[in-house]
Write a structure and sequence with these properties.
- The structure is a single chain.
- The chain is an all-alpha fold and 180 residues long.
- It folds into two domains: 96 residues, no CATH class; 76 residues, Orthogonal Bundle (Arc Repressor Mutant, subunit A), CATH 1.10.10.10.
- The chain is 72% helix and 0% strand.
- The protein is flat.
Length: 180
């Protein structure tokens, strides 16, 4: 895309919305503000649209970084401090570091590349179990969160995850991927 042509925002959003949302959710969970993830994603996208950057090498990395900065802003806001949900100093330091941002960009690229392979490998599971394994492993959600969301016990979520990982390992080994 040339620097003078505006990006196709709808296509970029459709392609990266899940990763943007997961990034926002991961940060907002620190302060108990998960319900604001969608607003953070939309605010980040709006800010990019209002001042479109030029010469972007990775839209995915830029969009995720923008979402993460917005999420940190929410946690640092006066309203959140007043409500008692302030982000810890250690988390704020980590979230603001360039090294952390570089790790996130690398992780996002890895997730995109490996994500399709993992999703396909989990194809033998029913839709609910596949979603549980995906949320638990890729999005690193807790047993408690998933148990509440799916109406199951934490033990059952753990069993589903273990069975899914066994299925995943077997499928990846069949494709020649080792080390699982």
């Amino acid at each position: 895309m040339s620097s003078g042509t505006p990006p196709d925002w709808a296509a970029l959003y459709a392609k990266h919305r899940d990763k943007m949302w997961a990034s926002a959710l991961g940060i907002l969970r620190e302060g108990g503000r998960q319900s604001e993830a969608e607003d953070v994603v939309h605010d980040a996208l709006r800010s990019l649209m209002e001042s479109p950057p030029t010469g972007v090498q990775s839209w995915e990395a830029l969009m995720i970084a923008t979402v993460k900065r917005r999420a940190v802003d929410v946690l640092r806001s006066a309203r959140v401090r007043r409500d008692g949900g302030e982000i810890s100093d250690a988390a704020a330091t980590q979230l603001g570091s360039e090294e952390f941002l570089a790790d996130d960009v690398a992780e996002a690229v890895d997730h995109e590349r490996v994500g399709g392979l993992i999703w396909d490998a989990l194809g033998g599971l029913d839709a609910r179990d596949r979603q549980i394994v995906w949320e638990r492993i890729v999005h690193q959600r807790s047993l408690r969160e998933l148990a509440e969301e799916f109406g199951l016990s934490e033990g059952r979520i753990s069993q589903i995850t273990k069975a899914g990982l066994t299925s995943l390992r077997d499928a990846l080994e069949k494709q020649g991927v080792e080390g699982w």
